[in-house]
TrEMBL record:
<dbReference type="GO" id="GO:0006364">
    <property type="term" value="P:rRNA processing"/>
</dbReference>
<dbReference type="Pfam" id="PF12923">
    <property type="entry name" value="RRP7"/>
</dbReference>
<dbReference type="InterPro" id="IPR040446">
    <property type="entry name" value="RRP7"/>
</dbReference>
<dbReference type="GO" id="GO:0032545">
    <property type="term" value="C:CURI complex"/>
</dbReference>
<feature type="coiled-coil region">
    <location>
        <begin position="177"/>
        <end position="204"/>
    </location>
</feature>
<dbReference type="GO" id="GO:0034456">
    <property type="term" value="C:UTP-C complex"/>
</dbReference>
<dbReference type="GO" id="GO:0000028">
    <property type="term" value="P:ribosomal small subunit assembly"/>
</dbReference>
<protein>
    <submittedName>
        <fullName>RRP7A protein</fullName>
    </submittedName>
</protein>
<dbReference type="InterPro" id="IPR034890">
    <property type="entry name" value="Rrp7A_RRM"/>
</dbReference>
<comment type="similarity">
    <text>Belongs to the RRP7 family.</text>
</comment>
<keyword id="KW-0175">Coiled coil</keyword>
<feature type="domain" description="Ribosomal RNA-processing protein 7 C-terminal">
    <location>
        <begin position="91"/>
        <end position="210"/>
    </location>
</feature>
<dbReference type="InterPro" id="IPR012677">
    <property type="entry name" value="Nucleotide-bd_a/b_plait_sf"/>
</dbReference>
<dbReference type="InterPro" id="IPR024326">
    <property type="entry name" value="RRP7_C"/>
</dbReference>
Amino acid sequence: DSLASLFSRCGQVQSVDICDKPGPGEKKDKLKSKFFDHKTLKGFQVAYVVFRKPAAVQAAKALSQEGPLLISTESHPVKTGISKWIASYEASIVDPNELKDEVDAYMQAYDKKMAEEEAKAAKEEGVPDEEGWVKVTRKGRKPGLPRTEAANLRVLEKEKQKRARKELLNFYAWQHRETKREHIAQLRKKFEEDKQRIALMRAQRKFRPY
């Protein structure tokens, strides 16, 4: 605003772009956001002042002969100190309605762009170019799964593998218990057989432990 006011004496100012360094050529028009993509520039900067009429450029070149230019004047004062802090704080408060309007406008432009790209891809699909090559797109007989569906399938597959490992561990634990139970049953059977054999040997007076 200060630069636009400063150079307005030369002619009507169309726009002022401030950059961190000089760049070749004209800048492409892009959707400027009031809430997003704000980059704080520090140190020396470069300003591009665009006038509505070419004659204003010559008038701007002649300003260097008039002496120093004052950015802060009584008619257009530059806020400093606590006034600048208050203005910065007030500017930082987001209006929900303005934010919603900007987001809706961005999404409408994005949907329009995607629809145009899809229509162009569908039109060019299967059509050979000048050299006879046919462009193959991702959409075909088996289109790729959406990212969300593919992610869900991966989660389900992991859960399935986890359940399988758990069931296998449970099976091993059950098998271990069954083996231990059979071993104890065999020991008891052998103990009963030994008792019967000792009793029979005693009855026949053939049992001599010493």
